[in-house]
Hints:
With 421 residues, the protein is mostly helical.
Amino acid sequence: MAATRCLVLALAVLTVRAFREADDSPRSVQSLIQDLLPSQPPYKMKDAMDELAKRPGAVEEAAYPITMLLAANNQEVSGKAFQTLQQAKISPPSNAIKAIGRKFYSKYTYERNDVMRALTKFKNPQPAAEEIVRGLADGDKEIESNARSLLSKIEAPESAVRYLAKGLYDEHLFVRIQCAKALDVLGKAARPALPEITFALMDPDDKVSDAAKRSIEVLQGSDASSVARIARELSTNKAGYIRLRAITSLALLGEAARPHLHEITSSLVDGDEKVRMEAQYLIKKLGSVADSAIKGKIAKDLYSDASWVRLRAIQALSFLKKDSRPALQEITRALADSDESVRTEAKYLITKVHQDIDKQELRRITKLLISNSFYQKVIGAKVLLGLPSQWIAGLTMKELNGKDASVAEYSLEIVRTYPNY
């Protein structure tokens, strides 16, 4: 009986020793890697990294999970992970960097911050370049600051630049501002977004349009198709503030706006005074005008029933001075306009600027001398008497009413007869 008890006791001692020896035996690398999972408490993660650092080649084997811990929300854990990799002189695997980057799409700011802080610790964060570029427009100042600091280490992917470019059309102002500023920060790397940047000059918010302007200056160019869109807005949009944005944008673009001289010149008679002033500024800057617009839109406005439209047109032609010559016929016609202000501007252009007159329209004015309207007669007479004498020296009334008198003499007689008109 005593012998049996001794045997049982001996077996128990041996069992306890066996368990103790098993607990004291080194854990496998795979077992330690299990302690690096996000579900584990921070102390286990740190203990596991300490143990891995003591074993040759173990840190390299566990490089992926250790790298992932760089984005841990616990700063002690992330710091320990960085220290472990650095001491072992292990370069983080690219797939781990990419995996960290994917965490940036979290809706939680603190998680995106953890990701961007982790990426700043890599010498080559290119695998997460997409997320870094997107981080420029995050809205969180720390994230944007870290993203900017990483730009020198990466090449901006075109897909990320296109993502920011799409944001320039967003209905929310905050998004447009963030994307415009991000593209501005990218500098020359923003070239794939040039069409959207060019059209962003039209944005009603100055923060967006100013950032777009800076980007265009850096890129030293603009997108021709977007410039054409702006020009179309100038000529077709009914909203004055949009037309003003369009002409202001074209003025900022300078030479790039030259292909749209027709729309610019036509804007000299725009219904908005600010648009007209910007058009004048741009025409002076470019040093040329479109004859098609002078003969088209502007000249046609001189036939309008509204006197204010005709006055606006003749004032535009006065601004153009000698460049208004394609509309010489209409200017001559305006000499006999019912509005005195129009007549005054027309006389200035005919006698001072062009020093020439359209002969066909001069004959029409001469026919006013035999009009049934006293008012028309007086206007015609005053116009003719105000012209250089050599222009009407050879004109007689013979063909008009059979009288043997010169047009000048007959005009003078009319003025004297109706002094109050």
